[in-house]
């Protein structure tokens, strides 16, 4: 029988065990709760960082001002930079926890900045909070708490647009982008700058007012001057408060108008370019924005590099840029200058000149008037008028419907299926031969002859010269127009097409290719860009040699005795050509697109003026001025 003392001892031991178990259980549950709370805090930090928002819900920091520094530190990365943050190592000892965050910043679709940053937390008896060091940024290792980071685009050496001899068409030169600083500029300065830079009255004043109201600090771009233009205005610009003009460099042609708009321009990228660039561009970048500079910017500009730098200049992440490559064209500066000087005679009327090297089919000059905006020489779509009689004559000769000596009457007008057709000046030539009807561009004679052609004959002949062909994509300029001559859908449609009206459309470069084909005796797809994917195979397609020889003789008659007599005295030797006048619009009398296409030696060309009296009186003199300048 146990003694009473033994029972008491056993009872006390049992009670002690129960108490110890309860204490152990309570301690363990408390530790688990602390682990959970500490881990929840760092998970909350990682999640908020990934959303770039530590305020919803607010992440607890021992010093609340640290949380607010997060947005300031990373603002320079831009809103498109996406963060992904995961908790790496993590442990807790008593009232302190330590670990690391694995941070990834997707700066572009192909470039990610990754690093690991330490993180600590402390328990104050009631809550956990993130703790930080006074001399170290909690966001990026190796920088100070007050430092910020920013993303810089770094571009390598840009390639050149080259001429046919391999020399730069637009070498790099100094420019001055003039802008208004909205934090300093006054309305009076903006108004004065409008006059100095020929901006619309009130336009800069309105932009300044809008920027001021919005609190914007971004410069308001106005105009970019090359060195000589800037120097002529430097004193006046200096006198205007808040006007800035930081010198930079960019590709520049020998003059502002040389080769424009086909060569294009270089400048600050647009918002649309940034949106569609798949990370290639960022606001503030400078790149090719139009013409060949824009179309081939990825080749010329190379691949941009990236740098993440601190506000103290420390490089934190670096992706080197890749240099650009040259893009070679077939432009010949001497011929280009001649074309530009000649097209200036059109003054305010839109016009274009294209010149082609006959042996190669390469375009050696493209001149547009005006020199800004629309590249009508390459992408314009115009009825070719009587220049198309080259194609119609080829269809007649190869189809055995006529010979150069075939006589056809040339009355003032003819009626086909109830529709009246007339000669340009209402002239009547009796009954000339085909070659003389061609030389004097008799519409009524060609309409009578076209009645003998099949509905698809003109379309097939046009394609033999590349009109309606597939050379547009290989020309090297976006939107280059190869033209169209659809199968006739009736007699009036067919005869109207025979004189370059109806649904016939061509570009100046397309009609220059027609002239080059006659000079060569074969069709070669015209091309401007001679490098990269644009340098496609261009196999000549032979034309009927007898028909070509006959048409050459007729084109010579145009100049010696016909509508192109303005070129009879052109410098450089005999000229072969064809005038054209195509009616358009609803005015009475209708307005005219006027043409002259032809060749001299190994140079073929097309002149088109959007509004003029006739091809012989307007386009032909411009063609003469062009040849005179080429041969000067």
Describe this structure in words.
Helix content is 33%, strand content 23%. It is α+β, with helices and mostly antiparallel strands. Among the domains are: 144 residues, Nuclear Transport Factor 2, Chain: A (Roll); 298 residues, Beta-lactamase. The strands form 8 sheets. The protein has a 5-stranded antiparallel beta sheet with strand order 17-16-24-23-22, sandwiched between helices. A 4-stranded antiparallel beta sheet has the order 1-2-3-4, with helices on one face. Strands 7, 8, 9 and 10 form a 4-stranded antiparallel beta sheet that branches. A hairpin with a 2-residue loop joins β18 and β19. About 3% of the residues have low confidence.
Can you give keywords for this protein?
alpha+beta, 20 helices, Beta-lactamase, 5-stranded antiparallel sheet, Nuclear Transport Factor 2, Chain: A, 632 residues
Task: Give the SSE map.
Layout: H1 4-51, H2 64-74, E1 82-93, E2 96-108, E3 111-123, E4 128-131, E5 149-154, E6 161-162, E7 172-180, H3 187-196, H4 203-214, E8 220-226, H5 227-231, H6 234-238, E9 243-244, E10 248-251, E11 266-268, H7 271-276, E12 286-288, H8 291-295, H9 297-301, E13 305-310, E14 315-319, E15 327-328, H10 333-343, E16 351-357, E17 363-369, H11 376-379, H12 389-398, E18 413-416, E19 419-422, H13 434-439, H14 443-450, H15 457-464, H16 472-475, H17 491-498, H18 508-520, E20 522-523, E21 541-542, H19 545-560, E22 576-584, E23 591-600, E24 603-609, H20 615-630
Parallel strand pairs: 6-15
Antiparallel strand pairs: 1-2, 2-3, 3-4, 5-13, 7-8, 7-9, 7-10, 11-12, 13-14, 16-17, 16-24, 18-19, 20-21, 22-23, 23-24
Helix pairs in contact: 3-4, 10-20, 12-15, 12-19, 14-17
């Amino acid at each position: 029988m146990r003694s009473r003392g033994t029972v008491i001892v056993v009872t006390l031991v049992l009670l002690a065990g129960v108490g110890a178990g309860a204490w152990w259980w309570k301690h363990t549950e408390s530790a688990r709760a602390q682990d959970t709370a500490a881990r929840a805090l760092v998970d909350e930090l990682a999640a908020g960082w990934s959303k770039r928002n530590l305020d919803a819900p607010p992440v607890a920091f021992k010093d609340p001002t640290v949380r607010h520094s997060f947005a300031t530190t990373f603002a320079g990365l831009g809103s498109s930079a996406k963060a992904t943050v995961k908790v790496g190592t993590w442990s807790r000892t008593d009232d302190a926890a330590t670990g690391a965050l694995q941070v990834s910043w997707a700066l572009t679709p192909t470039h990610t900045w990754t690093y690991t940053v330490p993180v600590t937390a402390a328990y104050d008896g009631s809550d956990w909070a993130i703790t930080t060091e006074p001399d170290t940024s909690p966001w990026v290792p190796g920088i100070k708490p007050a430092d910020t980071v920013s993303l810089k685009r770094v571009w390598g050496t840009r390639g050149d647009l080259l001429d046919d001899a391999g020399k730069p068409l637009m070498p790099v030169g100094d420019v001055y982008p003039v802008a208004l600083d909205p934090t300093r500029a006054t309305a009076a300065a903006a108004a004065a700058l409008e006059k100095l830079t020929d901006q619309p009255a009130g336009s800069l004043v309105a932009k300044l007012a809008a920027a001021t109201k919005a609190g914007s600090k971004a410069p308001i771009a106005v105009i970019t001057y090359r060195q000589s233009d800037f120097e002529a205005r430097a004193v006046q610009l200096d006198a205007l408060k808040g006007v800035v003009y930081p010198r930079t460099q960019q590709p520049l042609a020998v003059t502002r108008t040389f080769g424009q708009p086909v060569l294009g321009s270089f400048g600050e990228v647009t918002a649309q370019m940034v949106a569609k660039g798949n990370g290639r561009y960022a606001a503030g970048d400078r790149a090719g924005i139009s013409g060949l500079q824009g179309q081939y910017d990825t080749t010329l500009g190379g691949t941009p590099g990236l740098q993440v730098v601190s506000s103290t200049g420390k490089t934190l992440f670096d992706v080197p840029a890749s240099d650009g490559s040259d893009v070679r064209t077939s432009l010949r500066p001497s011929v280009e200058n001649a074309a530009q000087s000649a097209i200036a005679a059109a003054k305010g009327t839109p016009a274009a000149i294209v010149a082609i090297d006959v042996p190669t089919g390469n375009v050696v000059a493209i001149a547009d008037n005006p020199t800004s905006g629309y590249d009508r020489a390459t992408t314009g779509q115009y009825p070719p008028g009587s220049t198309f009689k080259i194609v119609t004559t080829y269809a007649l000769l190869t189809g055995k419907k006529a010979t150069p000596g075939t006589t056809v009457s040339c009355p003032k007008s003819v009626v086909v299926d109830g529709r009246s057709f007339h000669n340009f000046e209402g002239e009547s030539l009796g009954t000339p031969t085909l070659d003389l009807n061609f030389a004097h561009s008799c519409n009524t004679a060609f309409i009578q002859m076209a009645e003998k052609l099949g509905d698809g004959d003109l379309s097939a002949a046009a394609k033999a010269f590349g009109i309606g062909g597939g050379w547009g994509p290989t020309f090297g300029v976006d939107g280059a127009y190869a033209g169209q001559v659809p199968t006739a859908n009736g007699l009036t449609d067919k005869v109207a097409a025979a004189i370059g009206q109806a649904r016939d459309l061509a570009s100046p470069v397309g009609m220059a290719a027609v002239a080059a084909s006659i000079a060569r005796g074969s069709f070669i797809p015209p091309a401007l860009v001679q490098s990269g994917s644009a340098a496609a195979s261009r196999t000549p397609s032979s034309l009927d040699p007898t028909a070509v020889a006959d048409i050459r003789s007729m084109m010579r008659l145009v100049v010696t005795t016909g509508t192109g007599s303005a070129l009879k005295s052109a410098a450089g030797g005999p000229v072969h050509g064809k005038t054209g006048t195509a009616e358009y619009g609803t005015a009475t009398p209708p307005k005219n697109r006027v043409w002259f296409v032809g060749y001299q030696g190994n140079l073929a060309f097309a002149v088109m003026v959007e509004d003029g009296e006739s091809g012989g009186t307007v386009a032909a003199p411009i063609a003469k001025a062009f040849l005179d300048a080429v041969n000067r």
